[in-house]
Design goal:
Largest sheet: 5 strands, mixed
Helix content: 55-70%
Number of helices: 8
Number of strands: 9
CATH topology of the largest domain: Heat Shock Protein 90
CATH architecture of the largest domain: 2-Layer Sandwich
Structural class: alpha+beta
CATH superfamily of the largest domain: Histidine kinase-like ATPase, C-terminal domain
Shape: flat
Low-confidence stretches: 1-7
Order of helices and strands: EEHHHHEHHEEHEEHEE
Distance between the termini: 52 Å
Length: 327
């Protein structure tokens, strides 16, 4: 620290010199000697402190260069112990943030690679269909079929982009889930509505079993998205004429929703990865993107819930638990 452009140690030395000179010229030699001794000790302490602070500065320079072998305990003692603790906290926090940034960078690179791969297939199909549509004297019937296929591919890209945006918002904490009373029976009805035509074409049925009155606190809209993705997954893996069963029960701690199908179930290697983004199991269809279950988990866990997958008595089984309070 500097006062009037003079360092504190030099200023202190000047003050001591003035006091000693004053005491000496007034004939008080003992006082002059005492002040000189005190001044010498003080200046020595300041010198040692300055050297220790210099070592701390050198240690921080080493850390800034990316070397993590510094032990602050070697540089700090006594009055500098508090500064040592604070610096250690800062360094640990910076190291932790650095590791997280590296992990996020790797995750981002992997996600971009997966997104690129998922978009490449429909885009290739779109380019191929466009080349067919440019064929001169194309029959109307074939043109209509090509346009229909083109619409299917564009819808798939639109769904994929929207799904990725939703997951990204949830991961970033930009979604505020509502805290409303969600009736489970109504939730299942709303979740299955978009899937009724596809299930009817495969002659599939959905059986809802519950005691009545089951509910939990959450966001109806987002939960419809999550449960709908799970029912859709079950429908895709259930053969024609199969059945999807939804069971609901409520306890004092949580409300449980179990969704099971009559499909082939999960293979042992699929179970640990079933909720991973872009993961496609060995029984997945060619149209599967591998993002629906990942979105379902993000939505459910974001509302104080849990979800797990297992093999039931007849096929795959998903178990959702929505807790009534934070455990």
């Amino acid at each position: 620290m500097k006062i009037f452009g003079i360092s504190d140690s030099r200023l202190l030395f000047f003050v001591y010199a003035v006091i000693i000179a004053g005491a000496f010229f007034t004939g008080n030699h003992r006082a002059a000697a005492a002040v000189a001794a005190a001044g010498g000790i003080t200046l020595a302490v300041l010198y040692v402190r300055r050297k220790r602070l210099q070592k701390l500065s050198e240690a921080l320079d080493i850390i800034l260069q990316g070397k993590n072998t510094v032990n602050f305990g070697d540089y700090c003692e006594g009055e500098l112990h508090i500064l040592e603790n604070q610096l250690e906290k800062v360094v640990l926090r910076l190291r932790d943030q650095s590791e997280k940034l590296k992990g996020e960078k790797i995750y981002l690179m992997d996600s971009l690679a997966d997104i690129s791969h998922q978009l490449r297939t429909p885009l290739t199909g779109i380019n191929l269909l466009i080349s067919f549509l440019r064929t001169p004297r194309l029959k109307d019937e074939k043109r209509y079929r090509l346009v229909k296929d083109l619409q299917t591919l564009t819808d798939r890209i639109d769904w994929l982009i929207n799904a990725l945006l939703k997951i990204s918002k949830i991961d970033a904490g930009r979604i505020t889930f509502r805290r409303d009373k969600v009736d489970v029976h109504r939730l299942i009805q709303k979740s299955r509505q978009p899937l009724e035509i596809a299930m009817d074409l495969k002659n599939q049925t959905l059986d809802y079993q519950a005691g009545g009155g089951e509910y939990f606190t959450g966001d109806m809209g987002w939960m419809c998205e999550a449960v709908g993705n799970i029912i859709k997954n079950c429908s895709e893996h259930t053969p024609e004429g199969g059945k999807i069963t939804v069971q609901a029960e409520q306890t004092a701690v949580y409300t449980q929703i179990s969704i099971s199908d009559t499909g082939p179930g999960f293979s042992p290697q699929d179970l640990p990865n079933i909720f991973n983004r872009f993961y496609k199991g060995e029984n997945s269809s060619t149209q599967s993107v591998g993002i629906g279950l990942a979105m379902a988990r993000a939505i459910i866990t974001g509302q104080n819930g849990t979800i797990k997958a297992e093999n039931g008595n007849t096929g795959a089984k998903f178990i959702i638990k929505m807790y009534h309070s934070v455990l």
